[in-house]
């Protein structure tokens, strides 16, 4: 009882501390919704700020406006008019991505046009001084570099985790390239692009163009990778200071490094799952450990067979990039694993429906609500609901198999690692067999690892309380379907 009380108090304290810090970063900033055509936009502006340059902020693949909020708040607090938006197919944008993703004159060109529309809408707002810069992460870095080349109004470009073949020795003008310390390949590319302007330049140097086309700088944010670079104090300060340099402004004070506060809030929600699970009906004794031979068969066979079988099956049935394949992969993998577990004499037990739905609600509404406000879009528009339902057809069997093999959270840690590593290996095998079509899965695999880590802990609390792997599996399957359904970009080729 004392441990549960301590967990409750600690979880509440973490949540309160996280929310307090996150809301404090918004103090004095007005966030105004706007539409640029069908594109949803949020305007971040410091209360009482004088007319200032616009900074259009673009997220990466499978991201959304919320993902870039640390930059939006930092720049708004510095007096800029920060304009964040959801690309087509992402977040709450109802228009799907379209075109050929492998061609510059395909999807890239369409997304450049969208940046142009957002720029036009932003510059028409009162309180702007007619100057504009672009800032983008990952996928968007190439989009904004190319748009800066095409649009003479763009005075500066901040490219985070950049990969683009459009950079030349002098264009785009006033280019800042930011990479995380652990983004080894992108760091090399950033240095290569810096040395187009000055072959002797090193990371951290600023190179001025003698022809008057501005400057160029490549900096490294210490101790971060492709996602955490978005919350790096160094990266945020460099972006702000670079824009100040270009626009002749001076800003000071702290930046909105919200990553730590987000971690506090989400850790608190995960920790609270333990005492809250104690409110659920207590179930039967935990299921017995599955014999090692049976566990090996039920995990390794699906891991090998699933990508091979699906290599010869047409899986394009959803208007989303690779999520249709992932739904099919989950279904085949889960069905095979469940069948093999049953053939090996493993009992599945009863379904505790109240517990299953409680787990799903906690993951989607509580954890997901926090994500939606502070991290990334998690509440779907109507067009995504059928996608979530279709993915659930595969996600629920896969998570049922995972939970049964894990004994509803009672399995030893090495067994859990084995079970989930086998599934991830099967996704890796699928990419290897059809890299051209499924290479986007490589971006999603870290997200699935995070899902197993975070929601696996929450589901384990429910499974251990109820003694029902079925409840754990159904709840996790619904959460996984929801998470994938709101994250994958909606896409219509052509």
From TrEMBL:
Q: Domain Serine aminopeptidase S33: where? A: 51-161
Q: Where are the transmembrane segments?
A: 255-280, 292-313, 325-343, 350-371, 377-400, 412-433, 439-462, 474-492
Q: Which UniProt keywords apply?
A: Hydrolase, Membrane, Transmembrane, Transmembrane helix
- Molecular function (Gene Ontology), one example: carboxylic ester hydrolase activity
Coiled-coil region(s) at which residues?
A: none
From what superkingdom does this record's organism come?
Bacteria
Would the keyword S-adenosyl-L-methionine turn up in this protein's UniProt record? no
Alphabetical list of PANTHER family matching this protein: DIENELACTONE HYDROLASE DOMAIN-CONTAINING PROTEIN-RELATED (PTHR22946), POLYKETIDE TRANSFERASE AF380 (PTHR22946:SF9)
Query: What name does this protein carry?
Result: Serine aminopeptidase S33 domain-containing protein
Species of provenance: Bradyrhizobium oligotrophicum S58
């Amino acid at each position: 009882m004392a441990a549960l009380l301590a967990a409750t108090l600690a979880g509440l304290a973490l949540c309160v501390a996280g929310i307090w810090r996150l809301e404090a970063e918004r103090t004095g900033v007005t966030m105004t919704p706007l539409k640029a055509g069908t594109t949803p936009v949020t305007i971040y502006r410091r209360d009482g700020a004088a007319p200032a340059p616009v900074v259009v902020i673009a997220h990466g693949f499978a991201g959304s406006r919320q993902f870039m909020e640390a930059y939006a708040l930092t720049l708004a607090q510095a007096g800029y008019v920060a304009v964040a938006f959801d690309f087509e197919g992402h977040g709450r944008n109802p228009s799907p991505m379209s075109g050929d993703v492998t061609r510059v004159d395909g999807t890239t060109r369409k997304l450049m046009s969208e940046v142009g529309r957002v720029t036009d809408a932003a510059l028409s707002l009162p309180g702007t001084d007619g100057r504009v810069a672009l800032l983008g992460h990952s996928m968007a870095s190439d989009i904004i570099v190319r748009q800066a080349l095409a649009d003479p109004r763009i005075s500066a470009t901040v490219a985070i985790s950049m990969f683009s073949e459009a950079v030349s020795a002098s264009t785009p003008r006033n280019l800042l390239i930011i990479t995380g310390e652990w983004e080894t390949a992108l760091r090399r590319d950033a240095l290569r692009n810096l040395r187009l302007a000055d072959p002797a330049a090193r990371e951290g140097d600023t190179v001025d163009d003698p022809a008057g086309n501005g400057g160029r700088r490549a900096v490294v944010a210490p101790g971060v990778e492709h996602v955490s670079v978005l919350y790096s104090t160094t990266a945020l300060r460099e972006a702000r200071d670079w824009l100040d340099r270009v626009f002749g402004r001076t800003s000071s004070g702290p930046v909105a490094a919200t990553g730590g506060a987000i971690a506090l809030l989400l850790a608190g929600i995960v920790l609270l799952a333990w005492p809250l699970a104690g409110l659920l009906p207590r179930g039967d004794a935990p299921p017995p450990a599955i014999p090692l031979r049976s566990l090996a068969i039920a995990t390794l066979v699906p891991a090998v067979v699933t990508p091979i079988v699906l290599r010869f099956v047409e899986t394009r049935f959803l208007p989303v990039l690779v999520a249709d394949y992932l739904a099919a992969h989950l279904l085949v993998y889960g069905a095979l694993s469940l069948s093999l577990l049953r053939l090996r004499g493993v009992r599945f037990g009863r379904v505790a429906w109240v517990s299953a739905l409680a787990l799903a609600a906690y993951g989607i509404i509580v954890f997901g609500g926090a994500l939606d406000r502070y991290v990334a879009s998690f509440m779907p528009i109507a067009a995504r609901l059928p996608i979530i339902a279709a993915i659930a057809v595969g996600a629920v069997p896969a998570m049922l198999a995972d939970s049964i093999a894990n004994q509803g959270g009672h399995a030893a840690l090495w067994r859990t690692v084995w079970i989930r590593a086998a599934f991830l290996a099967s996704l890796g095998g699928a990419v290897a067999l059809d890299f051209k079509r499924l290479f986007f899965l490589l971006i999603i695999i870290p997200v699935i690892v995070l899902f197993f880590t975070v929601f696996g802990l929450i589901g384990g609390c429910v499974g251990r309380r109820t003694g029902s792997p079925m409840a754990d599996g159904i709840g996790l399957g619904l959460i996984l379907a929801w998470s994938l359904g709101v994250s994958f970009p909606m896409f219509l080729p052509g």
